[in-house]
Amino acid sequence: MLKKPIIGIPAGIMTSRGTKRYYINEADVRGIVKAGGTPVMIPSEAIADIDYYVKICDGLFFTGGPDVLPTFYGEEPHTKMGFSDIQRDRLELRLAKKALAVGKPMFGICRGMQVINTALGGTLYQDLDSEYDGNADYLIKHFQAAPSAEPTHYVKIEPETRLYKLYGSRWLVNSRHHQAVKKIGAGLKITATASDGVIEGFESENGKQIFGVQWHPEMLVATDEKMQLIFNEFINYLA
Ligand SMILES: [Mn+2]
């Protein structure tokens, strides 16, 4: 049987009808499966087994979700910070650090990209509207009111990056974030930015271990089939 890459996906926690449940969004799983990967859920209850999970997984996929607790990057919570989940933060930060140490590839979407950045010593804007100082005179709307499957803003893509190979110098993406990477983590380079300068993508400086985007290809793929290429890129690198 053909070996298919095993992709560890840390689960979120939600309370539904009075019961706490682990969850991973269907669209995230679909992107991995369509690309030829085998998704495996990693629950925060199993945090003691992190080393084992990293060992059995060929790659890790950090998905979208709540805000990273700012104490993990050395800040107190801003009043506009949103919901956070300390169990998921601890799980994902430890997974990312372990994966980094042993050279396992990582892919992050939205919060996932922010978690990887935090694990590498970077920081986040806790709320773009109140904190962004890049080109603040023309900050664009990054939490779109439009449906998630529709694109609303452009990203400029840097040459000689994995993203450039897929999309060229400019692409139209969706945007469902009020936070973003502020100080970029060690060993990472910016691959995409919005017109206001907000960081929309990064990868390892050598283009290998880490690959992240701030937008949601798993949702946008419903109207832009080329968004599947991001998942394919991650899985093909492992295969
Ligand atoms: Mn955006």
| First-to-last CA distance | 14 Å
Question: Helical stretch count?
Answer: 8
CATH superfamily: Class I glutamine amidotransferase (GATase) domain
What CATH calls the topology is: Rossmann fold
- CATH class assignment: Alpha Beta
Q: Order of SSEs, N→C?
A: EEEHEHEHEHEHEHEEEEEHH
Mean pLDDT: 96
Specify the CATH architecture. Answer: 3-Layer(aba) Sandwich
How can the largest sheet be summarized? 9 strands, mixed
Q: Which regions are unreliable across 5 or more consecutive residues at pLDDT < 50?
A: none
Which word captures the global form? globular
| Content-based structural category | alpha/beta
| Helicity range | 25-40%
Beta content comes to 15-25%
Give the tally of β-strands. 13
Bound molecules: manganese (II) ion
* Strand line-up of the largest beta sheet: 4-1-5-6-13-12-11-8-9
Rg computed from alpha carbons, rounded to a whole number of angstroms: 17 Å
Total count of domains: 1
Q: What do you see in this structure?
A:
This protein has helices spanning 26-35, 50-56, 86-102, 111-119, 128-131, 162-167, 217-220, 228-238, and strands spanning 6-10, 12-16, 19-23, 38-42, 59-62, 106-109, 124-125, 153-157, 170-173, 180-181, 188-193, 199-204, 210-213. The longest helix has 17 residues, at 86-102. The mean pLDDT is 96. It has a single domain (6-238), classed as Class I glutamine amidotransferase (GATase) domain (Rossmann fold, 3-Layer(aba) Sandwich), CATH 3.40.50.880. It has 8 helices and 13 strands. The strands form 3 sheets. The chain has a 9-stranded mixed sheet, with helices on both faces. Strands 2-3 form a two-stranded antiparallel sheet. With 239 residues, the protein is α/β, with parallel strands linked by helices. Helix 1 (26-35) packs across helix 8 (228-238) and helix 2 (50-56) crosses helix 3 (86-102). A hairpin with a 5-residue loop joins strand 12 and strand 13. Residues 142, 153, 175, 177, 194, 200, 214-215 line the site of manganese (II) ion.
